[in-house]
Amino acid sequence: MLQIEQTNLLLEKTVNERVHHPQGEPLRSVDRIVSDFDFCTFHVSTAPEAKTTLIISLYVKCWDDLARYGARAYLDSKYGRYPEITVAAAPEQGYNYTLAVDTGALGAHGDAAYVAEAVGDIALLKRHAMAAPFEQAFARYDELAREYGNVDTYAEDVKAQLADEPVLVIKYRGHDEGIYIKPSFDRVTVIFSTVFQDETDKIFGKVFLQEFVDARKRRVQNAPQVLYSHRDAPSDIAALVPAAHNDNKGYVTLVLFPRHLLPHKREYCITHVQVFRDYFHYHIKCFKAYMHSRMRTRVKDFLKVLNRAKPDADDDDKTRKTATGRRFEQRV
After folding, report:
1. What is the pLDDT of residue 100?
2. 51-64: b or e for each residue (b if 16 or more CB lie within 10 Å)?
3. CATH top-level class for 155-288?
4. How far apart are CA 299 and CA 296, in angstroms?
């Protein structure tokens, strides 16, 4: 299976073209709107006063949820370490977050690794915005692990305290689909609510998720635990989900254990977990396209057999063909 990259390739290409622009050639104005998964949009344009400055703005549908969990401060910390990148005090109209990139100064930097890292972080603007709630949940996990590390976690009072732990909610695709993150002392639970538009998607989705479960049992025992529930929300988020049942709605639960939450693994974990829903639906669509192509190929093969079985139109009743195609006349 292919892995969906978090880097926006069009955004990365646009910035790289400016940073590595040949000297002496005139710079052209840029005004591009780039779309990404989950109703995310980038606006890339040149500054009116200097064509070497790129203005990059981000719009995400769930920005209010992300801002509540410290997305702006997290993004400021990510891009504030680059002198060539300036965070706008007020975002561009219609967008949530805006950067001004001095591509001339960045291209003149002598360290190629530094330039590549800066361009890579710019291309990961959406990923960094979506990472803020996960970072907050992981920080809360560290606090709970220190607090309850030497406590009997099966005690009723401890279980009651952990049950009341707040859940971080990100409605990243509107009210129908969201991400729910619940930290605990020994795990972080990430729940995706997803809506299947087609009846066949539900069937294929169950097959894919069952394969995740079976693969973990057979080979990848260090992978996060994957659970799936249809219609009924898991108990951790039952109070946050409307009581009305939706036959086309499913809930995918990923359980991240301490081995996934080690400091040197967290960035990798956040990068891959937050794109799980897109990865999941992408491969459902790819599988359906593959099945349809196989069906069309089989139909073509059947039509060829039927066409070979038809007699030629110019043959009369007295003319026959042998298996090798030779003709002979039938005498009465």
Report:
1. 93
2. bbbbbbbbbbbbbe
3. alpha beta
4. 5
